[in-house]
Structures are given as structure tokens and as C-alpha cells.
Write a structure and sequence with these properties.
Elements (H helix, E strand, L loop, with lengths): L26 E4 L2 E5 H8 L3 H5 L9 E3 L2 E5 H10 L16 H8 L6
Antiparallel strand pairs: 1-2, 2-4, 3-4
């Protein structure tokens, strides 16, 4: 019968040798541009990451650095503001005028 060493102090090998997203910096500055990690940006805006990622197909700016998605703060905010939709107010319905109603109004009333 073989025995197994179950010593808790022995570090177990991890499946990922690189640091995870939570261990990456939340904000970066590259060339004067400030970048925020995608999950932090979503939390700040009160959205989920999935909601934030829906804008990617429409041209929302982002960059991957070390396998983690970052968004440029000023560019993303400008992109978000450029996608605000404003609807035109609905026009008031006009009454339809027919030829018979116009004739009735134009004829003088005569009383006997």
C-alpha cells in the first residue's frame, strides 16, 4: 500500500503560471493616456462587463495589455457621449380638411 503526502504547507502547482486579471493594475498611463481595466470601468459605470463589451462591435475603444482588456478613459467617454440618441418630438396631428368643409365655411349664411 502506498501513502500519499498531504502536507498543506507544500505549494501546489497552479494551472496558470501568469498573474490573473485581479492581480493586474486597475489603471495604467501610457503616453499621457490613462487606461482603466475593463471590469473596473464596468463597475464604475454601474454595468456588467458583458454590457460594456457590447459596444466593441460598434467601435468602442479598447486595448489588450498582457491578455487583459483596458479602456482609454477620455476616448471611451467621448465615444459613449457620441452615441447618445435623441428622438424628435412627435408632431401634433392636424385635422384633415376636405373640400366640403371649406365650402361650408366660405358660404355666407343667409337667414329668411
Amino acid at each position: 500500500m502506498s501513502s500519499f503526502n498531504l502536507d498543506a504547507s507544500t505549494p501546489t502547482p497552479t494551472a496558470r503560471s501568469r498573474p490573473g486579471r485581479a492581480e493586474r493594475p486597475e489603471k495604467l498611463t501610457i503616453g499621457g493616456e490613462r487606461f482603466t481595466r475593463n471590469d473596473v470601468k464596468a463597475r464604475k459605470l454601474g454595468h456588467t462587463e458583458k454590457t460594456l463589451n457590447r459596444g466593441d462591435k460598434d467601435g468602442a475603444p479598447y486595448i489588450y495589455i498582457g491578455g487583459v482588456k483596458y479602456r482609454p478613459d477620455q476616448r471611451y467617454d467621448a465615444w459613449l457621449l457620441s452615441h447618445i440618441q435623441a428622438r424628435k418630438p412627435t408632431a401634433l396631428k392636424r385635422r384633415k380638411h376636405t373640400a366640403s368643409t371649406n365650402l361650408r365655411k366660405s358660404q355666407p349664411t343667409t337667414s329668411p
